[in-house]
Write a structure and sequence with these properties.
Elements lengths: L5 E6 L1 H4 L8 H16 L3 E6 L2 H8 L8 H25 L5 E6 L2 H4 L1 H16 L3 E6 L13 H11 L4 E6 L19 E2 L22 H13 L3 E6 L5 H6 L6 E3 L7 H7 L7 E5 L1 H9 L10 E5 L7 E5 L5 E6 L4 H7 L14 E3 L4
Parallel strand pairs: 1-2, 1-5, 2-4, 3-4, 5-7, 6-8, 9-11
Antiparallel strand pairs: 7-8, 9-10, 11-12, 12-13
Helix pairs in contact: 2-4, 3-4, 7-8
């Protein structure tokens, strides 16, 4: 296990709330103390925090019949103020300044917007200010919302080239069955070659979260594949962040692969917001996977589905419809469609902007 140097910590709503759904202020206070401890060890920290809806529910009673999406928007927009004020007050006691960043998935889609956000966050960290990030639920389009803040934390860790991602939930990690059932054992270590663990995961979700343990598993494995070490741990446990730092205690650790280029880290999450599809032949597929450095050329393309402009994210599929990669378009769809199957053409996706998905 590597040491922590640059860490994204995600705190789930089920960690920040009590059983009655109200915010757990003593738990938040303890986690602030723990994050302060990490910063005192010269670890750079970015916090991704849920909890806005819970704070909003506590403050505002809404009619039962009101549209559920509108209710969440209201609770999120009002609760976010209370959530960030709570963090500001508690971190101020330790001499730490905080900033608030609210994002939507759209912010990660455009490369220029993505880099602008990255520069802002890294600028805050360089000035010793703690960025606190949350999804902007009040304006996010439902179809483009993050699965939950695990996805947002994973994207953030990839964006800033963090070496560590800590996902705090209300169980100790990944188990060999339902955590509460007798006989279920904690999986403490997930290596690079570990087989699929999804069969172990309970489909149950927390009362506040959109995702569940399966989402955490998928995001953890993707982050580890990108070279980020991941910890899934119990945020309700006393001193859990200190335990992770000291390499003791109980949690699930995901061994990181070799780190990938920052652009490939960005593309790795593009399967949720690509704008068009490219179908390639077997020869092109073989070339992409068998050569160390290979761009996607028009000669290997069978079909292009959808319209796109230069810089958009495209998904690459084989002739059987399997997703095999993602990449950034070097030119628009009009030009690309004219070049389908032609030799001696510029790459439609350059190697530097190509991310291949290695299936088990």
């Amino acid at each position: 296990m590597n040491s922590l140097q640059y860490c994204v910590i995600k705190i789930g709503s089920n960690v920040l709330t009590q059983e009655d759904g109200n915010p757990d202020l003593s738990r938040i206070q303890h986690l602030v103390f723990q994050i302060t401890f990490l910063r005192q060890q010269q670890i750079k920290v970015i916090l991704v925090s849920s909890g806005a809806v819970a704070f909003g529910k506590k403050e505002i009673q809404l009619p039962e019949k009101l549209n559920p999406i509108l209710k969440k928007q209201i609770w999120s927009s009002t609760g976010q103020i209370e959530l960030i004020q709570t963090y500001k007050m508690l971190f101020k006691e330790h001499g730490i300044q905080v900033s608030q960043i609210l994002v939507t998935k759209e912010d990660f889609r455009d490369r220029k917007h993505f880099l602008n956000m990255k520069n802002c966050i890294q600028g805050l960290v360089s000035q010793d200010i703690l960025p606190i990030i949350n999804e902007n639920d009040s304006v996010a389009i439902t179809e483009l919302m993050f699965t939950d803040n695990d996805e947002l934390a994973s994207l953030t860790a990839a964006m800033v080239n963090a070496d560590s991602l800590v996902l705090l939930t209300n169980v100790n990690g990944i188990y060999t069955g339902v955590p509460e059932e007798k006989g279920s054992k904690l999986i403490k270590y997930v290596g690079r070659e570990t087989n699929d663990l999804s069969s172990f995961i309970s489909a149950s979700k927390s009362s506040f979260g959109r995702g569940g343990m399966l989402t955490k598993l998928n995001m953890a494995k993707k982050s580890a594949d990108l070279g980020i070490q991941v910890f899934i741990a119990n945020g309700k446990k006393t001193n859990i962040l200190e335990d992770i730092f000291l390499k003791k205690g109980e949690y699930t650790f995901f061994e990181p692969n070799r780190s990938k280029q920052s652009t490939k880290k960005w593309l790795a999450h593009g399967e949720r917001y690509f704008v068009a599809e490219i179908i390639i032949n077997e020869g092109a597929k073989t070339t992409l996977f068998n050569q160390k450095i290979a761009s996607l050329l028009p000669v290997g393309i069978i079909m292009i589905s959808g319209e796109f402009k230069k810089g958009d994210i495209l998904c690459i599929k084989d002739n059987s419809g399997n997703l095999i990669g993602l990449g950034r378009a070097e030119y628009n769809s009009i030009v690309a469609k004219e070049k389908i199957g032609l030799k001696n053409q510029k790459p439609i996706i350059h190697y530097d902007y190509l991310y291949l998905i290695h299936h088990d």
